[in-house]
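In the current project phase, our protein records have gained a structure token line. A sample record follows, to show the layout:
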Amino acid sequence: MFNLFLATQPAAAAPYQSIIFLVIIFVVFYFFLIRPENKKKKQLQEMRSALTVGDEITTIGGLMGKIVQVTENTITFETGEDRVRIQVTKWAISTNVREEMKKAQQTNSQTSKSKAKASGEDNSIDSK
């Protein structure tokens, strides 16, 4: 059966098919793996460069605190009520807690509005 398939295809088309197949695989990898990873890195870099004094952060090690000093490459933050100050490099910051809370509130308000419209709560008609 495979010989029948090879007999119907011209000999010159076989190299082009393999090249086209490789190009398609590369395009799929780019759009599903490489591009989303680059977007994520860019967002993380923007978040780290936008950190200011007073922001609440979480490090990649799980330490949480409030920023008290920001330099070009390092951040100093206080943890807890005992006010211990820890200095870390910017790449060690994983999240900005306040920004994450704002995003969560926005998504919650958007989903609650869409649920209200779907259930008809927002579309009531006064009969006066």
User: Anything to note?
Assistant: The beta strands are 56-59, 64-70, 74-79, 84-89, 93-96. The mean pLDDT is 83. The helical segments are 2-8, 13-49, 97-119. The chain has two domains: 1-49, 52-117.
